Amino acid sequence: MMAEQEGGKHAPERRIVPKKMAHFVVKTLNLAASVRWYKLVFQAEAIFDNGKLAFLYFDDEHHRIVIGELPGLDPLNTKAIGFDHVAFTYASMEDLLSTYVRLKSAGIEPYFKIDHGPTTSLYYHDPDGNQIELAVDNFSSITGAHNYFRSAKFARNPLGVEVDPDDLVRRWTAGEAPDNLLGSGTR
Question: What are the residue boundaries of the structural domains of the chain, listed by start?
């Protein structure tokens, strides 16, 4: 099943992609504050923490987040080239809104709240200013999301529209069906 290539190298005949994203690593000057924040936001547990390096998990992955305290780091430069944020998708609008309420009660509020079209997303800063997106898919299928990406509506506004999570919570707790809240800003 391998095709012969130049120089005797072999290349697969099928597309091979990773089965999942395993983890991400955060560098910090304050391990304790970062570990507290990530544990709270993700309801994570530390599988290892020696005061300089912590491995956290919250699902079936043996570690999802690694946080390392490294002396001599410069403060985060948001104008530098690099990754902008890491995004996590929740299973339902109820899960996203419940997380929003839980975090808000702990004093952690999103700085950016947006209905992108394909997702409804809440963006948070960790203690060092790194950006974490918590989101829910607005479409029940990848086909629906891809069709939206290909639409004239998305082309006109690829960022989306701001949403008020407190209004979404109010509507949800008043009995509105959570599916009605999905994509409420862009549909």
Answer: 22-72, 84-180
Give per-residue burial for 88-115: e unless 16+ CB within 10 Å, then b: bebeebeebbebbeebeeeebebeebbb
- Would you tell me the crossing angle of helices 165-173 and 93-105 to the nearest 10 degrees? 110
The C-alpha atoms of residue 23 and residue 66 are separated, in whole angstroms, by 7
> Which tens digit of pLDDT belongs to each residue from 154-173?
999 999 999 999 999 999 99
Stretch (H or E) spanning 177: none
**pTM for the whole thing?**
0.89
CATH homologous superfamily of 84-180: 2,3-Dihydroxybiphenyl 1,2-Dioxygenase, domain 1 (3.10.180.10)
How far, in whole angstroms, is CA 161 from its chain's centroid? 18
